């Protein structure tokens, strides 16, 4: 109950997409705590948005569990290089691919680079997301609405479609949805709408791919302390972030990673079409 920071956090704001180094307190990705046990030994993974936040924590955990990892990210080079260091310190191969996943061609290129480096894809983690805060629908431009959908849901389809020819029975797809899929924040209208779509997309895709032996699940985080928060929310919201949960705080990225590991591993062989909430006690569905 006392090992993680609780609000009030220092007031802070960053330009999008945000930087880990500028955050106070610094997010905990499991750098000093996560210990692997070979649960993903020899597997090959793609993680979008893997440079920081939940994606970095998942990349670190996957590597310590024995997986090689391709990290897709927009342009956060400093964060991406730190994630590469953590993967390579674990003795695994890291491939970094910057670029904009709103473009279908770039999504295909990500998969092509993974196959060129690893020979196949065993795990696809669709984690990258875009959000912005607005108090009135009239503030949301057409371009903002479109980029939110293109980043958060369209890219999942493009990546999945490109990856499937390189996935064998036993492979896993894990999508990051949100508690906003069930309890939407009105200030995050576009983001919350896409997260509801991801939840439905996951359930439908799981049924389509079951006969191929490919499992599809999603994780629904509650408030998690990542660069997305100070770069997309006003300082007063950042200060109290996560205080509305029963645990009274934001979650740390490291607290998500074990769920992704479980869903990626053979231990979850009968788990598909599921949503796993990690919400600090806030009810989901």
Automatic annotation (TrEMBL):
Keywords, alphabetical: Oxidoreductase
Keyword Ribonucleoprotein recorded: no
Coiled coil: none
InterPro entries cross-referenced by the UniProt entry: NAD(P)-bd_dom_sf, Sc_DH/Rdtase_CS, SDR_fam
Family recorded in the similarity comment: Belongs to the short-chain dehydrogenases/reductases (SDR) family.
Positions of the UniProt region annotated as Disordered: 1-39
Superkingdom: Bacteria
PROSITE patterns on file: ADH_SHORT
Lineage per the UniProt record: Bacteria, Pseudomonadati, Pseudomonadota, Alphaproteobacteria, Hyphomicrobiales
Organism: Methylobacterium oxalidis
A GO term, aspect molecular function: oxidoreductase activity, acting on CH-OH group of donors
Biased composition (Pro residues): 1-10
The keyword Oxidoreductase is assigned to this record: yes
Start-end of Basic and acidic residues biased regions: 26-39
Protein name, entry field: Oxidoreductase
